[in-house]
Amino acid sequence: MIYAVIMSGGLGSRFWPKSRKGLPKQFLKIIGQKTMIENTVDRISTIIPKENIYVVTNQSYVGIIKKLLGIDNKNIFKEPLNKETASCIGLAAVKLLKKDFEATMVVLPSDHLIIGQEDFEQTIKRAVEVAQDGDYLVTMGVTPTRPEIGYGYIEVGEKLQDGVFKVKRFIEKPNLDVATSFLEKGNFLWNSGMFVWRADYLHTKLRYVKIYFIIRYILYI
User: Where is 185: in which H helix or E strand?
Assistant: First the structure.
């Protein structure tokens, strides 16, 4: 089975003052009539049924998530501590493996704006195919349109098949000169923060190294 894991425990501090600790940006109506987390669920629910959509958050946001999404308690994974992305994803993997040892996870931030639903669906479906066909941890890159210093970057490595490449390296939030050089070279992508993998394979890797060292196997563009 395929499961969506939506990360929604962040404080949204970079969007201050609109985003506050008590109401971070994923719960705001930035564009349109729905909050960002509602749009995230709507976007993925065309591929994954709602009963297979899970949200990882902290205790402070459980009430608002239930109110906005109308999901059951069993579909909310509560983090004991508000830690980094690795612990959030690791918690979800362990819980899903207890439910389904063949679970495939589609990990999504709750605060993305994505234009182009059809392209999004095709990308997710392709990433799922790649993750299920081999021992791969899949991440998705975005072609940059400007030298952005607030994003992480992915350097594209060896081509494996159409649209599928190895990750050569990750670079986190470079300065303006470096970001500009990445844009000129043309083989660097913005790191979208969206991932797809089999939960059992991720769990095996997480027992040895942290997540930012092990997502080096494959990149789907």
Answer: helix 176-185
CA nearest to 88, candidates 74, 99, 77, 101: 77
How far apart, in whole angstroms, are the C-alpha atoms of residue 16 and residue 121? 31
The position carrying tokens 């931030």 is 109
For residue 132, the one-letter residue type is Q
Q: Which residues contact 179 (CB under 8 A, 6 or more apart)?
A: 147, 148, 149, 153
The answer for residues whose C-beta is within 8 angstroms of residue 154's C-beta and 6 or more apart is 139, 141, 167, 169, 170, 171, 188, 189, 190, 191, 219
- Would you tell me how many other CB atoms lie within 10 Å of the CB of residue 6? 25
**Residue 207 banded pLDDT, cuts 50, 70, 90:** low
Strands 53-57 and 2-7: parallel
For residue range 126-173, list pLDDT tens digits in order: 999 999 987 889 999 999 999 999 999 999 999 988 888 999 999 999
Cα separation of 136 and 36, whole Å? Answer: 29
Helix axes 199-206, 85-99, angle to 10 degrees: 130
DSSP classification of residue 50: G
b/e sequence 54-70, b meaning 16+ C-beta within 10 Å: bbbbbeebeebbeebbe
8 Å CB contact between 152 and 170: yes
Q: Which two tokens stand for residue 116?
A: 């182009």
pTM score, whole prediction: 0.86
What span, in angstroms and rounded, lies between the C-alpha atoms of 26 and 40? Answer: 9
